[in-house]
Amino acid sequence: MLRKIAGTIGTRVVTALLAFVTWTLNAHFLGPEKVGTISLMIFSVAIIQLFTNFVAGAALIYQTPRAGVYRLIIPAYCWSLIVTALMAFLLELAGRIFPVVAIIPEGYFLPVLFLAQVMSLASANNMFLLGLERIRAYNIAGLIQITVLLLVLLLLIFGSGMRDVMAYYWAIFSSWLLVMVITLGMLAPHIRREPLKGLGTLMKEILRFGAYVQFANFFQTLNYRLSLKFTDLFLGRGSVGVLSLGMQLAEGLWIISRSIATVQFSKLANEKDREYGVNLTLALAKAALLITAVAMLALIAIPGSVFVFLFSAGFAQVKLVIASLAIGIVALSVSMILSGFFSGINRPWHNTVSSAIGLIFTVLMGLFLIPSYGIAGAGLAATVSYSIATLYQFVVFLRVGKVRAKDLLITRAEILTFVGEMKRIFT
Question: Using an 8 Å Cβ cutoff, are 365 and 380 in contact?
Fold first, then answer.
């Protein structure tokens, strides 16, 4: 398992480096306002995917080893296509009737619709790969996506001279389209004809599981990105670009936690030993906390002048964003591991409650802090939200797992085991 985690982390480190180059290009050649528009477009797609993932999301990871790809792929695809179109239309309509709640940037309805369609299908394929524990294939798909995005963006900026939002749009659209095709090819050997008996019962179970997971994801996505909308309302589109870049850099430290949680969920979805799952989660949470905290200290130590040099003077407040997010980013690194545990043992409602609590604080703190403290207020609001949501999950985990206080300490044996496993993996 540690080898899979290490492979996932390695892939995501490379992915993060390529994404960093992408952000730098956007910052230099597009500027804060256009970067802000891109961020709101991606936020729109994320909102749409929250609804497609009721069927085509994490529930597929849990059900794939139990039901098989053949019985799941057609319902997942049909749901994705229909719900994506419906939600994109509803978001656009809501924005036209009530401009203050508009999420899709004006004039970008069709680009958001088509991008959401492609990303939803590609995401469903990725969920199948995780359900099959094909972690390497999943990692390769992620690496292909960011590589193609960067190459196309470079071609459009330097080859065609495009210096607008659509340069990034065509780059990300083509990258996800290619991933959709490639991952479908990866799944082809697993699509074997099977009896469809009991499909109705299966769909009810998927919706039940998916509802818990997606309500959690819905609340969590709003926790992550609702501050972008508040910032757009109170501070303007340029501030959205600065905030989004700072958030991307800080959230890049979640590489460790997300990589661990991805493999953890895939493992626990196929594991019946509850005690093993508790001990595994506890060890992984400790590792995620320590590594993320150290990485955050290193990121904060970077002088602000470095960020200005990398991204231009328009992004001078990026370090302020990172500093205001620091504690929340570290807290949520633990939350991701706990979320993987609750989903893996089929108790995803705890993640839903956690995210709902966090969203309440996101709204309350955001409306108060952003107008008063600007971009730093957005980061502080996120920190409060992330920390309280994680605290709820932690308390429930202690109760469900019957964890003792002494179990929370990092022992010498755990350190030696971790070091030994790392040596075994990399030598």
Answer: yes
Residue whose pair of structure tokens reads 């659209």 in the numeric block: 173
361-417: pLDDT as tens digits = 999 999 999 999 999 999 999 999 999 999 999 988 888 878 777 777 777 666 655
Which tokens hold the place of 126?
């990725």
Contact 151, 84 (CB under 8 A): no
Q: What are the residue ranges of helices labelled H in 252-348? A: 255-268, 274-300, 304-311, 318-344
d(CA 181, CA 202) in angstroms, rounded, equals 26
Q: Token pair for residue 101?
A: 């709640």
Instruction: Assign residue 198 a region (left: φ > 0; alpha: ψ between -120 and 50; beta: otherwise).
Output: left
Instruction: Encode pLDDT of 293-340 as tens digits.
Output: 999 999 999 999 999 998 988 899 999 999 999 999 999 999 988 888
Q: Report the Cα 404 to chain-centroid distance in Å.
A: 31
The C-alpha R_g of the chain, in whole angstroms, comes to 21
Rama region for 37: left / alpha / beta (φ>0; ψ in -120 to 50; rest): alpha
pLDDT in tens, 95-128: 999 888 888 999 999 999 999 999 999 999 999 8
- Mean predicted confidence (pLDDT) in 216-239: 86
Pairwise CA distance, residues 390 & 358, whole Å? 9
Q: Cα–Cα distance between 349 and 401 in angstroms, integer?
A: 16
Instruction: Measure Cα distances from 245 to 141, 252, 296 in Å.
Output: 24, 11, 16
Helix, strand, coil content of the chain in percent (nearest 5): 90, 0, 10
| Distance in angstroms (rounded) separating the CA atoms of residues 402 and 319 | 40
CA distance 424 to 427: 6
Torsion of CA 1, 327, 371, 373, to 10 degrees: -140
